[in-house]
Write a structure and sequence with these properties.
The chain is globular, with a radius of gyration of 24 Å. Helices cover 32% and strands 21% of the residues. Helix 12 runs antiparallel to helix 14 (405-423). It is of the alpha+beta class. The protein has a seven-stranded antiparallel beta sheet with strand order 13-10-12-11-15-16-14. The protein has a five-stranded antiparallel beta sheet with strand order 5-6-9-7-8, covered by helices on one side. The chain has a four-stranded mixed beta sheet with strand order 1-2-4-3, sandwiched between helices. The chain has helices at residues 3-25, 45-51, 73-83, 134-144, 158-163, 171-174, 202-208, 244-251, 288-296, 313-316, 321-326, 343-358, 376-379, 405-423, 440-444, 448-458, and strands at residues 36-39, 64-68, 88-91, 107-110, 117-119, 125-129, 181-187, 193-196, 217-224, 232-240, 259-267, 274-282, 304-310, 332-338, 367-372, 395-401. Among the domains are: 31-110, Uridine Diphospho-n-acetylenolpyruvylglucosamine Reductase, domain 2; 117-228, Uridine Diphospho-n-acetylenolpyruvylglucosamine Reductase, domain 3; 231-310, Alpha-Beta Plaits (2-Layer Sandwich). The protein is built from 16 helices and 16 strands. The structure holds flavin-adenine dinucleotide (FAD) and 2-acetamido-2-deoxy-beta-D-glucopyranose (3 copies). InterPro entries: BBE, FAD-bd_PCMH, FAD-bd_PCMH-like_sf, FAD-bd_PCMH_sub1, FAD-bd_PCMH_sub2, FAD-linked_Oxidoreductase, Oxid_FAD_bind_N. GO terms for molecular function: FAD binding; oxidoreductase activity. Belongs to the oxygen-dependent FAD-linked oxidoreductase family. Residues 57-228 form the FAD-binding PCMH-type domain. Its cofactor is FAD.
Length: 475
């Protein structure tokens, strides 16, 4: 070996030493010894897959994506992130259309490995980890022949859904999802893991039921279980847009807590003319034929209908799989809540949606989605009994849109103003379908001061600072 070569080797060794030293000087994520998976932009396809979200609008490039295998790993990640001043984002199902469950350059705590579901021996409750999807829960519940109050679709995450209040197909019968939580476990901003229930940390229990992601990471929910309401009569009935006022009259007729209805404004090929589709969901014990008669007989004439029976909620939770696979990928979603199916509100939005989807073929795929659940059960719980304050009779209206934030924004403000004018009550916006530019008082209403005071105790330094941020301040 010539001296040149030797020198080269030395320099090379030195360089290695320097680089190892500098790695040691920097606290490393890998060195934390967390059980689970850690991905970085260097991890290739695994990393790319882990950045995916239901809406491509919500895809960002985090520095780390961590999948803890145990809840005990989470405090270590929080401590590391805080020591490096990295933003922390928490992801469960990743369906929220705003990018709150991801971060540009920060750390994503992906709860995907924490998805265990266990039914209690007496089958009266189900323990669900905070990273489960509703599909995980429904599969296990089906085996035990029980149901819980969860999301309509299997791929919605339990975590984000629950902290947003939770409208379920079963809400007409059993109330909101948060009204059926018996207790929960939360990782706090300071790393402590606490149990919360009506008697343990009761303020925290109140706050996580509709207060969003602002109070900690819920790693476990214990949910009340019920005997199944199925089999379900479900399917779709399609009408030409020319029938809109007749369809509205049919929708406005009475229904029970066992009948849920979704209404969609959509354009379908080949002509792409405006159409209305209704998706009924009728529990066992209701005369389905009688319930559906108002949509198919008399004045109103469907273009087509497909009605059948689904044995259980696992089956109905797969009803949108085709739309998910083949529908638009860039989703801008906003929604608001409204008190009733007022003509002015419904037809005003029809008008706006028709005009918007005329604009270009690009936005033609935008749909307007209405959810009609009998509100009586939901309103039995007081507006300040949980952080989810919207309790006066209302329905919820997830507006789905392909491209134009301005349109969704315009429609939800129109809906809010019209509803306030007619019902005399301003319901504001709903966190689960909001984008982040709404004001906290528009989301939390009169419950905001209490949430701000609880924030002083559980997150005084504002570690949870994504989404609808609540300031820690005493009342
Ligand atoms: C196709 C579709 C269908 C929907 N259907 C319904 C419905 O039937 N009923 C209904 O009520 N809503 C529905 N929603 C709204 C949905 O509940 C919210 O978007 C919810 O935030 C999604 O939860 P996620 O865990 O999948 O989302 P993510 O994007 O993973 O998270 C959303 C927010 O919740 C936070 N979060 C997630 N997990 C936790 C946790 N364990 N602890 C604390 N914070 C957490 C995240 O940090 C983020 O801020 C639907 C949305 C879509 C797109
Ligand atoms: C990433 O996702 C794609 C599409 O779902 C899949 O085909 C591929 O196997 C995934 N890659 C890894 C490494 O899991
Ligand atoms: C709906 O039910 C209420 C109360 O039961 C009743 O007063 C009202 O007339 C009903 N309306 C229709 C359209 O059937
Ligand atoms: C929709 O377009 C029609 C025709 O151009 C117009 O008369 C109407 O005012 C528009 N409606 C709204 C809500 O913009």
């Amino acid at each position: 070996m010539t001296w040149v070569n030797k020198l080269f080797v030395r320099v090379f060794k030195l360089l290695i030493l320097i680089s190892v030293l500098s790695e040691l000087a920097k606290p490393s994520m890998e060195a934390l010894g967390i059980k689970g998976q850690i991905l970085t932009p260097e991890s290739g396809e695994d990393y790319i897959n882990a950045t995916q979200r239901n809406s491509e609008v919500a895809v960002k490039k985090p520095k780390y994506i961590v999948f803890p295998d145990t809840p005990e790993g989470i405090p270590l990640v929080i401590a590391f992130a805080r020591s490096q001043s990295l933003e922390i984002a928490v992801k469960c199902g990743g369906v929220h259309a705003a990018p709150w469950a991801t971060s540009e350059g920060g750390i994503v705590i992906d709860l995907g490995h924490l998805n265990k579901v266990v039914v209690s021996p007496d089958k009266k409750s189900v323990t669900v980890q905070g990273g489960a999807l509703w599909g995980d829960v429904y599969e296990v519940c089906k085996e035990a022949n029980i149901e819980v109050v969860g999301g309509a679709l299997w791929y919605v995450g339990v975590g984000g859904f629950m902290v947003g209040g939770g409208y379920s197909p079963l809400s007409g019968e059993h109330g909101l999802a948060v009204d059926n939580v018996l207790s929960a476990k939360v990782v706090l901003a300071d790393g402590r893991i606490v149990k919360t229930s009506p008697t343990e940390e009761p303020d925290l229990f109140w706050a996580i039921k509709g207060g969003g992601n602002q109070f900690g990471i819920v790693i476990e929910f214990i949910l009340k279980a019920y005997p199944p309401l199925g089999p379900y009569t479900t399917g779709s009935i399609l009408y030409s847009g020319k029938e809109i006022t007749k369809v509205l009259k049919a929708i406005q007729q009475n229904h029970t807590g066992k009948e849920r209805l979704n209404i969609i404004f959509l354009r379908t090929p080949p002509d792409f003319s405006p159409k209305v589709m209704i998706l009924p969901w009728i529990a066992d014990g209701v005369d389905a034929e009688k319930s559906l008669a108002k949509f198919t007989q008399g004045d109103v004439k469907p273009l087509s209908q497909k009605i059948g029976t689904a044995p259980d909620i696992v089956t109905t939770s797969h009803s949108a799989d085709a739309q998910r696979k083949f529908g638009p990928k860039r989703l801008t979603i906003r929604g608001t809540l409204f008190s009733d199916f007022y003509d002015e509100l419904f037809l005003g939005i029809w008008d706006r949606w028709c005009n918007f989807t005329e604009k270009s073929p690009d936005v033609r795929g935008s749909v307007m989605f209405w959810d009609l659940t009998k509100p009586d059960k939901i309103t039995q719980i007081g507006e300040s009994d949980t952080a989810m304050h919207v309790r006066s009779p209302h329905y919820c209206d997830p507006a789905s849109d392909a491209l134009c934030d301005e349109f969704t924004s315009d429609v939800v403000s129109f809906a809010r103003e019209t509803n306030t004018k007619i019902s005399g009550k301003d319901l504001g916006y709903w966190i689960s379908l909001s984008q982040g530019d709404e004001k906290p008082e528009e989301i939390f209403g009169d419950n905001l001061p209490r949430l701000e005071a609880i924030k002083v105790k559980y997150d005084p330094k504002g570690v949870w600072n994504k989404g609808i941020v609540i300031k820690p301040q005493s009342a």
